[in-house]
User: Fold this.
Amino acid sequence: MKKGKRTFNLLDLLVRYFILVILGLFRLPLFYLVFTPLTLYPVYFLLGLFFNASLIGNSIIIQEIPIELVSSCIAGSAYYLLLILNLSTPKIKIKKRIFMLLAAFLAFLLVNILRIFFLSLLYINGSAFFDITHELFWYFMSVVLVVLIWFAEVKIFRIKTIPFYSDLKYFYHFSRLGKKK
Assistant:
């Protein structure tokens, strides 16, 4: 490998992980600032198609039943996990990386809006299935959804490298341990 290419890879790696560390320190307020209104208003709109709905802060009121969208509903950590998977994967050109990130965020946002809408319908109608469905979505589906989105992106965008592992392999190759004598 040429030295210029090696420097570029190292610079790319440092920038990607620097962004992850910086966003890791400030991620939740940033993700919630962006994704709370992007989640709240579409859910309010969808519920407004079927019910007389009012919006007060982060609560949607329907038939005097408050549906409060707390930070867990917004799922800022899921967006951050998608960002981690994206930025910890080497050998992706910047335009492709940005497009992948936007696609992942949009996919998760749309599914999350539909999830909240569906759960709201169960809650408003007093369904006996609300609690179990809410728990199932909370503990199981959110993680599965992030993994499915990532796997879909790997397939659609033909990603050949593995998050974290490929970077560690790169370092090992240039370390004393990785050099053949």
User: Anything to note?
Assistant: The mean pLDDT is 86.
